[in-house]
Structures are given as structure tokens and as C-alpha cells.
Amino acid sequence: MDLTNGVGLIAGMLTTIAFLPQLLKTWQSRSAEDISLGMLSTFCIGVFLWIIYGLSIQSVPVVLANFLTLLLALMILILKFKFQ
User: Fold this and answer.
1) 37/35 Cα distance (integer angstroms)
2) Which residue from 6, 17, 9, 23 is spatially nearest to 69, judged by alpha carbons?
3) Rounded to two decimals, what is the model's pTM?
4) SS3 for 37-52, per residue?
5) How many Å apart are CA 43 and CA 16, to the nearest integer?
6) Which candidate, 41, 42, 63, places its Cα nearest to that of 52?
7) Is 66 helix (H, G, I), strand (E, B) or coil?
8) Per-residue model confidence as pLDDT tens for the chain (84 residues)
9) Pure H helices in the chain
């Protein structure tokens, strides 16, 4: 693995992990009231487009990081609707 892909994987891991505390807090509190539906929906669409971009340039770090980020963000989005 070259340095560029290594940096990409680390950056992707950190930005993905950043969603984990929010997901845990939302699950534990059973509330997603303070999370903006517009922001989260727009974010999910943007991350999905990053996945398409990553596939088109055949970049494993871009695809992997954004796929995992999308999973976490979608879980928060689902909880937002579930706890309304």
C-alpha cells in the first residue's frame, strides 16, 4: 500500500468513527430530536455520491470509508424516524 492510500484509509477511518458517538447517544437516549433531518438526508446523499465517485476512480479508501460512513448515517436516520 502506498502512502497516499494509507493516508486516505486513515482519514476515512477517522471521519467514519466520528459518527459512532452520535449513533450510540441516539440509541441510548432514544431521541434524535436534536439531529437535523435536512442535514442528515443531504449528508447521506452526498456520501452516496462519494461512493459512486470512488467506484469510478477505483479508489478503495474512498469507497470503503464512505460506505461505512453511509451505514452509520443511515442508522442514525432510521433511529430519527423510529424515535419520533
Assistant:
1) 6
2) 17
3) 0.86
4) HHHHHHHHHHHHHHHH
5) 13
6) 63
7) helix
8) 789 888 988 998 999 899 899 999 999 999 999 999 999 999 999 999 999 999 999 998 899 999 999 999 999 999 999 998
9) 3-17, 20-29, 37-56, 60-82
